[in-house]
């Protein structure tokens, strides 16, 4: 199996696992889902990336992660403001 | 063509997914049991917070205890057992406190239980006063015997006066105690509790009052000759301007002291309810006057007398403080954004009630307490949660000779903070919010930037090449010139066998570095934009059908065999790799030039 | 190897999707529905009833002539025609038990038709004795000497009405009141008193029980959590007589969307079931075979 396929399967499994637990907890929260997905993809990209070669899809994934980090910043800002508003 | 359609379909799917998610971004919580916890016919008990402990099981025994406590307390007071009185009073106080907190916790501030609690608080106050009063009464009895034996008629008069005022006080307390009966007994009967002890306590109380009354009668008849004055030479008289006063009126005592020999008399002490109220100077003719505005005096009968130099007594006078109706006016509340301004005034028919606490109730719950100014006006701005509320103001008149008063009720609607643009603009109008947002975005952007720029330790930086083959950047050229292209120096033999990429050996000796350089050179030659993405095998296949393909592929094969072989690279192998590298570079150079 | 795996994976995902879809459409969120496995359904209760071999009745003229049955009428939704009421009255007279669980005053016409003195008062009953932090959650305690109350220390109600008349079997505590102004609090003019929520009445040889809150039978209330004896209460109720009948003609427990009706039809006949499963598998294998041909 190619590294790419392994990575995408792992990510899919992780996301399905997170969804499953959310269903079990009877609570669906996009924010939590997003953060868990970001952590998952971050770890998978770290494990997959190679010292010598950076395939193109990894480059794209890193861009996706970077934009995810910025979105995460926005979520954190929102949470802080929610706390401040109380 | 097929690939294009797949890409288009995937793109459409991704965009629609992102769109669906973006639609929910305002409220990311898609579902939680709390969201659908309430249906028409029932609520989802599983999603709500459980209440622990049996709440009613605490109320009824408490009410029962509070009904029984006065009975035993009055009996103890009657038995003059003051040690136990103090203990029982403390227990009674504790029980009352429990009821107070229970009434608030159970949100019953307007219920029958709340009325019971009010009556009970009143009872606690009455019994505390009764305990103090009777204790003093017993002291007076002891003192009376001592002074009678010593023949101290002045002190006996003083005691008679104090006894008189104590008697009135205890009579008042008894009257107040009877006032509570209705609520106390009714509540008890409603909860099927035994109220006989409470009714019995009233009889005991009546007996205490009777004992005090007969005791005082005896004292007056046998004592210092009623309410006359002391020495014959001294004559102290007082008179009250008004026997009936109410809130904010002046209670004025005028008097005259005549002393033998004429001279200017010293100050005269005025006692109200046996408590020294003031020392007033006398005029040359011996007249004096004392006035006090009625504010916190309890409604009922009060006694007043004057004493000159501790031995000359005036006769005892009484005045009545009457309860007056208080009028609490609440103006229509002004609802602003999330705040509601309450203003109004508290007054009696004739005067304003200043420095008095006024409670603002929203749906029966205390929202705020405000104190009136000297003119009786109040104004307070209070944060009230969005929704419809019924508000009113309440004056409890706890320590005033005034009747409690409630204002008219108003129905107000506090608007929900609109989630529209107004709210957003209001949200962003707050500099703190903007600051937090900007700071957070900046930090995350920096984090994202460093994530993208980060290099793993030991990896060789790769950068896409954006120029045409042969027109390499000057620095690239320099670098290339410094690179070992032709056969490597012989010192290579002295290099240890183990190749440690992390240790940063001389770049020329490192197969990884050689591969990276070759890859870059080939990419530049072929204008391939992502040299970093190529593995050795991909590099080989990229050069397919090109003149230098054989050399590059040989290098790739040797490189793979040695580097990925999982074993240490021997000197011979290293030489093979270097040779392959050199020939590949040479053939590349040959084409470039 | 990798090529042949992909369609399998896809088929698996599609199957999971179909399963999820089936689960989705075979459920409902309708209040009191026996097909609703959510908190406001009665699936748990009906599972227990099924285990006890309960007979579901569509019409009152299906009532048996014997005298050892208990008929449950849970959360009725419609009107009862006079014919059915007299049929029910006859059923009671023979020594059977009828349990009517309703919080609507509409059922008072049924009760008066049966000649009962019990009436349901649909008011906003609240109590200090509650199990969750909501005024609709009221605890009721046993009262009187009815066999139904033995061994049960309390039942939990959910937005109950109360009953007047009959012998009280379960009552709220004294610290209960009717929240007339709907402010969820005890206010002036709302007096504290006990309210009867389950009442019994002799009717000929039989007994009529009126429960002023059908919500005690919904899933979340039947959950045997701490201090909840509602499940025990319904078990006691069912074991009062050897034969258990459940009204499905008027009860809201029978309500379901049309999709479920179809699904039930399928579920009830094994033949349909097998046919559908075979069809699904055929479709999947066909799909895979055509995909492989494409590749070759």
Give the SSE layout.
The complex is a heterotrimer of chains A (86), B (593) and C (296).
Chain A: H1 3-24, E1 28-29, H2 30-48, H3 56-85
Helix pairs in contact in A: 1-2, 2-3
Chain B: H1 2-23, E1 29-31, H2 56-78, H3 82-105, H4 112-150, H5 153-190, H6 196-222, E2 235-240, E3 244-246, E4 250-258, E5 268-272, E6 275-280, E7 287-293, E8 300-308, E9 312-313, E10 317-322, E11 324-325, E12 327-330, E13 334-335, E14 339-347, E15 357-362, E16 365-371, E17 377-383, E18 387-395, E19 402-403, E20 405-406, E21 410-414, H7 421-429, H8 431-453, H9 474-482, H10 511-526, H11 536-542, H12 549-563, H13 571-592
Parallel strand pairs in B: 3-10, 11-19
Antiparallel strand pairs in B: 2-4, 4-7, 5-6, 5-8, 8-9, 8-10, 12-14, 13-14, 14-17, 15-16, 15-18, 18-20, 18-21
Helix pairs in contact in B: 2-3, 2-4, 2-6, 3-4, 4-5, 5-6, 10-12, 10-13, 11-12, 12-13
Chain C: H1 2-25, H2 43-51, E1 55-57, E2 69-74, H3 82-93, E3 97-101, H4 108-113, E4 119-121, E5 125-127, E6 137-142, E7 155-158, E8 162-164, E9 167-172, E10 176-178, E11 196-203, E12 206-211, H5 219-222, H6 230-238, E13 243-247, H7 258-268, H8 270-295
Parallel strand pairs in C: 1-13, 2-3, 2-13, 3-12
Antiparallel strand pairs in C: 4-8, 5-10, 6-7, 6-9, 9-11, 11-12
Straight-line distance between termini of chain A: 51 Å
Question: CATH topology of the largest domain in chain C, anyone?
Answer: Rossmann fold
Total count of domains of chain C: 2
H/E element order of chain C: HHEEHEHEEEEEEEEEHHEHH
Number of helices of chain C: 8
What's the quaternary structure here? Answer: heterotrimer
User: Kindly, what is the distance between the CA atoms of the first and last residues of chain C, rounded to a whole number of angstroms?
Assistant: 14 Å
* Low-confidence regions of chain C: none
Task: Using the CA coordinates, give the radius of gyration of chain A.
Answer: 15 Å
Radius of gyration of chain C: 24 Å
The level of helicity of chain A is over 70%
Structural class of chain A: mainly alpha
Number of domains of chain A: 1
In which range does the helix fraction of chain C lie? 25-40%
